[in-house]
Request: fold
Amino acid sequence: MIGSTGTTQTMPPRTSLHLEQPGDEELLHSLFAEARTLELGALPDEFRATFLDQQFGLWQHHLEQSFPSAERLIIRDSAGTAIGRLVLEVTAAGIHVVDIAVLSASQRRGHGSAVMLAVLDRADATGAPITLTVASGNGPARAFYAGFGFVDITPAEGETGAHRALWRATPRARATQAATHAQHIPQLPEHAEFLRLVGSTFAAVDESGHAISLTLGACSELRRPATGAASYVLTFHGRGTARGQGIFTLAGPGMSEMALFLVPTQLYESETAYTATINLLEVDHV
Reply:
């Protein structure tokens, strides 16, 4: 768990959190610069350094003024090298992730996921919701958070804004939602409907409320409708550790939420494959 006391918080994979120190400013400056690569690239060379320094100073001032009691933490790898930053605002209303960033050279190694899992564990232990904002155009970041159960709560008037508001419900709210969905399972789509969505991403939530992002890799028909039943197998794959077989609530593009029994069939280095077998009775329409 992450806390404001102590000097180090450790979690897998080989990732640790340390309280921010005055000597960490060089790292923070680098993280800020990487997040504004496109913006800086549009400026003449002679203005970039000055502009970056000014903007970095304004960002640091914003954090101090807007989140004076925030927990400021530095992310380090197994060698003790500072590779990122985490800023959390913890209040009675919940946990707000003010900033989370990892240097590009250290990304795709599980550090961001390890930190986010630690934040989720802390929130679940206290029954707190989590909020954060993400740039509207940052598709990979939005998909990353969706995999951890965050949903978009951006109000209608903010639909065209530069940022999206994301929210992860409390454990009790997620459990209630899962129970409600289980009592209202809609008719499953037919083979052809799934076939057109091969390659699409689905949000999936298991019975414990854990959320992952799954991509539909294949939809294979087993028996023809003439036999009296249309049977087919769906194959999904998603990043993360298998959560075990069970009922998952899935939501896909253009589809109503549905409950499927998924079985993890193969664990790769960074992905898990899941399968679901669907049997639909054919109904004669008069």
